[in-house]
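Notes for week 9. Today we move from apo structures to complexes. The key idea is that a small molecule is not decoration. When we ask for a structure prediction with zinc ion present, the ligand SMILES becomes part of the input, just like the chain. The input block below holds both the sequence and the ligand string. Read it once before you look at the output, and try to guess where the molecule might sit.
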Amino acid sequence: MLDVVLAGGRVVDPETGLDQVGDVGVRDGSIAAVSATPLHGRVRLDAAGLVVAPGFVDLHSHAQTVPSLRMQALDGVTTALELEAGGYPLAAAYQAAADEGRPINYGFAASWVGARMTVLEQAPLDGGFAALAAAIGTAGWQRLVDGPTAAAVVAEVDRELGEGGIGIGLMPGYAPESNREEYLAVAALAARREVPTYTHVRHGHTSEPGSCVHGVGELVHVAAMTGAHMHLCHVNSTGWRRAPELLELLGRARGFGLRLSTEMYPWGAASTVMGAPWFDPLNLDHTGIAPQAMFDASRGRWVRDAEDLAAIRRETPGDIGLFHFLDETAEADLAVLDDVLAHPDVAVATDAIPYLSGGRPVTGRAWPLPDDALAHPRLAGSFSRTLRRQVRERRVLTLPEAIRRMTLVPAQVVEAAAPDARRKGRVQPGCDADLVAFDPGTVAERATYDDPRRPSHGMRHVLVGGTPLVRDGRLDTSVMPGRPLRGRGR
Ligand SMILES: [Zn+2]
């Protein structure tokens, strides 16, 4: 007897190319059968007219809180990984998630930022995003250090891999003065340990000198020097209008055998801490960002001028800000996002930052979100928006190819480090029963910059490890089926 049957949907498995109408049966948290003829189980979920696919795997979610992960589940995400910043210390990050419970699967990379903060500053981190965000815009951990200190950072990253880090997250973009040799040494460590790295590159705007082309050039250089798998985080917000150029560079370098991958989210605004180096008022002319175009979500207001920005950066550098790098009302700018996704093997990933209320992440099990909760809409809507816009309206990708970019491609990025990921991103017997059933004709994001609290429309059923978390479009707040994904170092 099966526990759950998703019945009569169009079943799409991106690895085998299966695309047939039928049933998917679940037993003990795993997929037990995929069948063109009817299966019988204790729970039957009607999927007629729906697409049944692997649950989406988000490689880039800083939003590791229960309310934020619930919103991601309503967008079809069943595994949300914090790989760019990572979790530090890893043991505390995993323990906090296990103690509180998580609606969807989670996991963390070893954190180069956390290792540096510890070795250079003894900054107290607790495994959570808030403490790391508060410290990341401060100068102490960002500086050039001597050789023995850099070696101590690399050793600390290695120790964290031993705690189960899913590869190594690196953010030289937040410490542009930090040692280049150290970046190379961390990548060499990743190559030795056969795990990927995930980089927010050293330079990420479009003007020379110090443009995103230099930043990604360094990433490619490091991949060539070490043989490491280097994953470029959020190519859209790194490259702005030059993102297609970056993808051409990555594509050619891949052609020479370098191990490179990347991801994007389908929006023209980014979100990060106000203390980020590229928001320095002295440099804004060069980067092409106007202070008045920045929204401080922690304070819930727009930045007034350069003086105001300088004060925010001094007083509360960990405030979360939003700024637009594309004009989403301009067709030519929107086409850049289509162009980016059209490149081979670009994964969809959100870069989600948790909902804030009164400047603090919304935590605990309270649901729904408070009325004043703020976040970039990429948290709640990136996957549905891709299915609506790039698949249904613009036809940039076929539906099966889009599903591949949301499931198998991200699973394959991490599976050298986390072999359990080989059971994710697939609809095959023996794989984890992380499954979505959505309506391809109506699936759409509803979150906007003005109202980011609106969940996506169209995810009818979402199963995590065989447990229905979303059933007939309704979120079950009584279950916490999320399980950790860990690196094999542990
Ligand atoms: Zn980033």
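The longest strand covers residues 2-12.
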